[in-house]
Design a protein that fits this description.
By secondary structure, the chain is α/β, with parallel strands linked by helices. Helix content is 46%, strand content 14%.
């Protein structure tokens, strides 16, 4: 027999059934405005009710005033919980504080909570009060003194503040208390209309949802009680619909429902479980409600689960219900009937319309992050017993589980590897626990390791001993949950569940809002420059455990062992340790908060920062603000080489991607680098001398490298990236045909390797996906991919798969695209150019070595070229996979022969030159005399000469267009005259001023804009040339220019080094160790006459550069360019009354520069006469 309640709650209904049908029936019932008067309040605790609201069940909703509140809307937050003084104020506030205490699990005495409600009541005489206002008031010194005089335990007040602060860290809780759009429920319930409050469950964290549900419940209680206490007639017909209240944390029907049930009708709606017993709240509503409705059709009820409130006959009756049937039972009389009702089809739409209308009337919050605002009202969130928890062996075991995933042979200064530590893990953890508890733990010195960076610099990594890594990782697990909730939403590096993809998504969303200017910035040596005192103050704001703070101080100041010497750490955090990224984020978080307070749109990934603005002026101001805040208070500075602001139309690079208005691409240097890495693995795999283990490792490395690279760079809905991935897959096929024998290419292990783009044949069909889903739901186990009778198409070689498909047979697959029978076995000499003492090697996959006194070039182990070392003056290597032996490098260095290394397109990446020099004094003079007025004046003359030579080139081409295109000729001459005026202005600059270089570069940039705009007009329209692109050029014209510039770059480098000068210390272009500032200074006067004039002249004579499938210049195009440049570079011309080759002129100019620095002569730049 069922249990019968002693007293049912009057005027209450409990509606149960399948979730959507029960909600539909309830909504239809309460929205029948024609049949009854009064207001309706819908408490849509999960947001599911809004999904059920449709045209069929809206009834008379739209004919009345509707107050719609979405508590998940953080852009336009709605404030619902601010209490005004009333007779029930303390009762409501105390219930809220007790609920928060239970959810937060922070121990606060009942007497302290009662005192807090009394304090809030006293404060309410000045107006309404919410949680944030209460916390701010309780944090004041006056309130603290009042508390100590009445309560006596200061720790309990700290716990109370910690509890409220923890609660307000949830954005929706802060919004509910302090939202700028105030919801006046009290006025709404006294009008004949509807209040709909939704809190979609999926938008909240677990505890956040429980707190927001409590605040919503309290707000409605307060409003209804206020209305009833004022005896307003309209308030006597209120219906409150409780849609799917939260189950967790609520063990009883709220008292206010019982207290108001005589005046207010309460309808409870919930899903009826079929096989399991109902939870406590659902069971109480089913037993204590005056009436129970069961909406059919429901899953068959299990008798043992519902026997406490239903009889066997009632269960049978409910199980027989069909769609449209409702079983209605009175708990007072025990009688039941079955009625028929309408139910809606599964369509959506009305809720969305109401949401949209509501957002139009709401203001956008100026607070960028809710958690940031609450931190200004409290000094610290006390965290006690952290050190004690850290000292426990079980906590240390969690840290060890993270450490042991690293390389097994990793070790610190004690030489104990992870594998050795694992053998005695339990005893080692016990020893560490004892040391920490007795406070005798001391970290061992760090081992210093340097690894190369992509820019050629080196990054210093400091490696701790394994035992210390265990403690550090355990500490990270304790600290991360404390700091993570208060970090900015726009910080993405080294944070759980955040990645570079998320950062890029935010950047893209900001661009979509209309931002047109971008500031890119990088902090100089961020990890190494962190000030310990500032960092510890920031940590102490959140951590109240002195032992933990002392332990972190100990880690920060531990010594480093470098070549057996102990080096103390004064600033910085050690890169390579698991805790360091968190410390860096703590240190940079004030910068994030500063940006947010100023309304600056930014994205930070570690020390790489992007700011997006709407104008150039805003970009300049944002850069200034960032630089000043980093300097003071953080004592950091930006890296000038990586800090700039550009228009979005010019594009910018971030996190390895190149972002443009038309989409995102992978940076070209990244694709080149991955090809170089994979080429090495493929060569090892195809090398006949490789062992079986080496080949196995090569296959593993190929798959792991492609998989990792794809996971990082493959962005959805980015066609440019998809095309780049496709080209990389094609490049792998070309490498295979180039380096792998046929038996390896036919091996299934190679055919089934990882791809940059997963082929379509790998995708499961819809029926297969559904079958896997059914198996997974049914509990069969983990879903397994279907087994096909034959392998997918992408696993079969081209000549075997899809027999009906046209297959290209006997294709020539080489690294370059040779569509006109330039096969891989073409004569090697076609890709070698010898010009005097210069040797240009343009063939991919070449190997250069030394035999005796000769340089030998091999292709596939076959000697294809030999030349005496004594006849060489420069070696220029350009292409993929070109290798040069160490012995050859040493011999060339002894002979002072530079080796220039360049990618297929663009500027050289490296120059191999000897270390020793007999003119080191000149390099010191370069540094000392760089700012001397005569040296700066020489730099100005170089800039003026470059501009003048560009003007001469324009006049040169104008001569041949006077008859055919007189208008263009006149424009060329006019522009040339304007540029000569800019050259004169550059010469008139005062070399003693600090800003002289920036002004000179400004004249140079202005002249370049005029110059390239006019050159574009004289080139044939078929070339498609629209302007100059220096880096990442993809059009053949700019690639041709970059190609000649690369050859000229090698010539200038050789001349500079042979003159005894340091190529890195420039005059105008700066002294950073980039790609050779002095080389760029000297090359400028030679670009226009020997590169630009050459390429434009070739194009005018019918030359058309060709590119292959990868987008690079074809070998024959590069050969044509190299031959024409060599011919021009060796052709004598008149210079200072003498006939000499341009190479000789360049050498004399470099020597003149050396004399200038040595105060032994003057420098006069080369000028093209025209």
């Amino acid at each position: 027999m069922r249990r019968t309640p002693m007293n049912c709650i009057p005027n209450t209904i409990s509606i149960l059934g399948s979730g959507s049908h029960a909600a539909d029936v309830a909504i239809r019932s309460v929205l029948k405005f024609k049949e009854k008067n009064g207001s309706v309040i819908v408490l849509d605790f999960t947001g599911r009710g809004a999904l059920v609201l449709k045209e069929e069940n809206k009834m008379g909703l739209l004919k009345h005033n509707v107050l719609w509140c979405n508590l998940a809307d953080r852009l336009r937050p709605v404030g619902i919980f601010t209490l005004a003084r009333s007779v029930h104020f303390q009762q409501v506030m105390l219930r809220v504080l007790k609920t928060i205490r239970r959810i937060s699990r922070i121990q606060v005495n009942d007497t302290t909570l009662v005192w807090a409600t009394e304090a809030a009541f006293m404060l309410s005489k000045n107006g309404t009060i919410g949680l944030a206002a209460l916390m701010k008031s309780l944090s004041s010194p006056e309130t603290r003194r009042w508390f100590l005089s009445t309560q006596g335990d200061p720790h309990d007040l700290g716990q109370l503040l910690s509890m409220i602060s923890w609660c307000l860290r949830f954005p929706s809780v802060y919004a509910a208390s302090e939202g700028i759009n105030r919801a006046d429920f009290e006025s709404a319930v006294c009008k004949e209309g509807a209040v709909w409050i939704e809190s979609p469950l999926e938008y909240f964290e677990q505890y956040e949802y429980q707190i927001i549900s409590c605040l919503l419940d309290a707000a409605i209680e307060n409003s209804i009680k206020n209305a009833i206490s004022q005896n307003k007639a309209a308030c006597q017909k209120i219906t409150v619909l409780h849609l799917f209240p939260p189950e967790s944390g609520f063990t009883d029907i709220p008292e206010w429902i019982k207290e108001t049930s005589n005046a207010v009708k309460h309808i409870f709606v919930h899903k009826l479980p079929s096989e399991r017993p109902m939870n406590t709240l659902l069971n109480l509503w089913s037993i204590n409600a005056a009436t129970v409705w069961i909406v059919g059709k429901v899953l068959p009820l299990k008798k043992s689960a519902h026997i406490n409130w239903l009889t066997d006959k009632e269960i049978e009756k409910i199980n027989s219900l069909n769609y449209g049937n409702v079983w209605i039972k009175s708990n007072d009389s025990g009688k039941a009937i079955t009625a028929n009702v309408k139910y809606s089809n599964d369509t959506l739409g009305l809720a969305y319309t109401l949401r949209q209308k509501a957002t139009l009337r709401r203001k956008i919050s100026p607070v960028r992050q809710m958690a940031t605002s609450v931190l200004s009202g409290t000094k610290k969130v006390e965290e006690y017993n952290l050190y004690n928890r850290l000292s426990e062996k079980e906590t240390l075991r969690l840290g060890w589980l993270r450490v042991q995933t690293a390389r097994k042979d990793s070790y610190g200064t004690d030489k104990v590897t992870i594998a050795e530590f694992k053998a005695n893990a339990e005893s080692e953890l016990a020893k560490l626990s004892e040391e920490l508890k007795s406070k005798t733990y001391r970290c061992k010195p760090l081992r210093k390791v340097q690894i190369p960076k992509p820019d050629g610099d080196k990054r210093e990594i400091r490696i701790a001993s394994v035992r210390d890594r265990v403690v550090i990782s355990s500490c990270l697990l304790s600290l991360e949950p404390i700091f993570e909730p208060v970090f900015s939403h726009f910080s993405f590096a080294f944070r759980p569940n955040r990645s570079a993809h998320h950062a890029l998504a935010v950047v893209r969303s900001m661009i979509a809002t209309g931002k047109t200017w971008v500031v890119t910035a990088d902090i100089r040596k961020c990890f190494d420059s962190i000030d310990h005192n500032i960092l510890m103050r920031l940590i102490a704001r959140r951590i109240g455990d002195a032992d933990i703070i002392n332990l972190i101080k100990h880690w920060l100041t531990i010594d480093i062992i470098d070549f057996d010497e102990m080096i103390p750490i004064i600033t910085g955090v050690p890169q390579g340790e698991s805790l360091s990224p968190l410390l860096a984020n703590i240190y940079l978080d004030p910068l994030d908060k500063h940006f947010e307070q100023l309304g600056i749109s930014f994205v930070r990934y570690a020390d790489d920062i992007i700011i997006l603005t709407s104008s150039k002026e805003d970009a300049e101001q944002a850069l200034k603000v960032m630089s000043e805040f980093l300097f003071d208070p953080l004592r950091l500075e930006l890296k000038p080489a990586k800090t700039n602001y550009v228009a979005l139309s010019d594009g910018f690079d971030y996190l390895g991607f190149s972002i443009r208005e038309d989409g995102i691409r992978i940076k070209q240097n990244r694709t080149v680098a991955i090809q170089d890495i994979l080429r090495g693995y493929v060569m090892t795999l195809g090398n006949l001398s490789s062992t079986l283990e080496q080949r196995s490792d090569a296959r593993t490395n190929i798959n792991a490298t492609i998989r990792g690279w794809r996971n990082y760079f493959a962005l959805p809905d980015e066609p440019h990236i998809a095309e780049q991935m496709k080209l990389l897959d094609e490049s792998m096929e070309q490498m295979a045909h180039y380096y792998l024998p046929l038996n390896i290419r036919d091996d299934p292990a190679w055919i089934c390797r990882e791809r940059f783009i997963m082929p379509k044949g790998f995708t499961l069909t819809e029926s297969e996906e559904k079958e896997l889903e059914k198996k997974s739901i049914a509990g069969i186990g983990y879903p397994e991919p279907p087994t096909n009778v034959k392998p997918a198409g992408w696993m079969i070689k081209d000549d075997q798969a899809n027999s009906g498909r046209d297959v290209q047979k006997n294709r020539a697959l080489v690294v370059e695209d040779h569509s006109d029978n330039e096969l891989e076995n073409e004569n090697m000499n076609n890709s070698l150019i010898e010009d005097g003492d210069r040797l240009y090697v343009l063939t991919h996959g070449s190997y250069l070595t030394v035999m005796g006194d000769d340089l030998v070039i091999r292709q596939r182990k076959i000697e294809v070229h030999r030349r005496s070392l004594s006849e060489l003056g420069l070696v220029f290597l350009q292409g993929f996979g070109i290798n040069i032996s160490v012995n050859l490098q040493l011999r060339l260095a002894e002979l002072d022969v530079p080796v220039v290394l360049a990618p297929p397109v663009g500027e050289p990446m490296a120059v191999l030159t000897p270390i020793s020099t007999s003119k080191s004094y000149l390099r010191s003079l370069q540094v000392l005399r760089r700012d001397d007025p005569d040296v700066v004046a020489t730099g100005l003359s170089m800039i003026a000469s470059k501009i003048g030579n560009q003007a001469a080139v324009l006049r040169y081409f104008a001569k041949y267009r006077k008859k055919t295109s007189p208008d263009i000729a006149r424009q060329l001459i006019k522009t040339a005259d304007t540029m000569r005026g800019l050259a004169d202005n550059a010469l008139l600059l005062d070399p003693s001023t600090e800003e002289v270089r920036s002004h000179a570069m400004g004249f140079e940039g202005q002249a370049a804009a005029f110059y390239w705009r006019q050159l574009a007009k004289i080139l044939p329209e078929t070339t498609g040339f629209t302007g100059r692109i220096t880096r990442s050029a993809q059009d053949p014209i700019n690639q041709s220019l970059n190609y000649i510039y690369g050859m000229l770059y090698g010539e200038v480098w050789r001349a500079v080094v042979r003159a005894g000068l340091d190529p890195y210390f420039g005059i105008i272009h700066g002294s950073q160790r980039d790609q050779g500032s002095l080389v760029f200074d000297l090359i400028e006067e030679f670009r226009a006459p020997f590169a630009d004039r050459l390429v434009v002249g070739m194009l005018g004579r019918g030359f058309r550069p060709e590119t292959g499938q990868q987008g690079f210049l074809k070998t024959r195009t590069k050969r044509q360019l190299a031959l024409c440049f060599s011919k021009k570079w060796s052709k004598k011309l008149s210079w200072r009354s003498h006939a000499m080759e341009p190479s000789t002129i360049l050498a004399k100019q470099a020597n003149s520069l050396a004399k200038l620095f040595n105060r032994a002569g003057d420098y006069h730049p080369y000028k093209m006469r025209w």
